[in-house]
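Lab notebook page, bench 4
Experiment: in silico fold of construct C2
Operator: M.H.
Input chain length: 196 residues
Purpose: comparison with the prior construct
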Amino acid sequence: MKWSITIAVITFVLAAIFSVASNGILNGAPWSLGLLVVLFIVLIGILFDMIGIAATAADETPFHSMAARKIFGAKYSIRIIRNADRFSNFCNDVIGDISGIISGTATALVIIQLIQSADIARHSPFEYGINIGLTSLIAAITVGGKAFGKTFAITYSKDIIFQVGKVLQFLEENLHLTIMKENKKKKAKQKFKKRK
């Protein structure tokens, strides 16, 4: 219940930030720049979806020897895998879903800007064609990208999580931002299972 409320609040805040930022960029901008913004938002969704899948697919065993040798990012990679349920929930559901919603809204604004700049008559067949074509294109890129991302994430889960682990360690050591705390309860349970 605590995690559900926390993630709901985080989603609300992030959705507001994404929405304000995208609307701020799109308002008054040409439709071509707006389309690039939409594609960027879609790519963020695909990237985080891929990271979330990699977290659930990765095995922490290879990282133990790396952590013992003090390799940068290994300890944080283990932390990600041990918190895979929450980490993937944040990446797939929070960032992924927000990106989907915001990209849909942004696509609608781009279509309006494109129709206005091209001086296309309202409710004309050409307007409907642009509307359907652009919406379908963004949907196809999103779904196709996520399908590719899932396959890539499962195949290269270790490498992806290791790179994310490096980023988390850098953020914590240099900017003092703790994104994810170590789950000591899970660690204790795993040690207990090994003793059995």
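Observations: Helices lie at 2-26, 31-57, 61-68, 74-82, 84-117, 125-155, 157-174, 184-195. Residues 102 and 128 are 21 Å apart (CA to CA).
Next step: discuss at group meeting.
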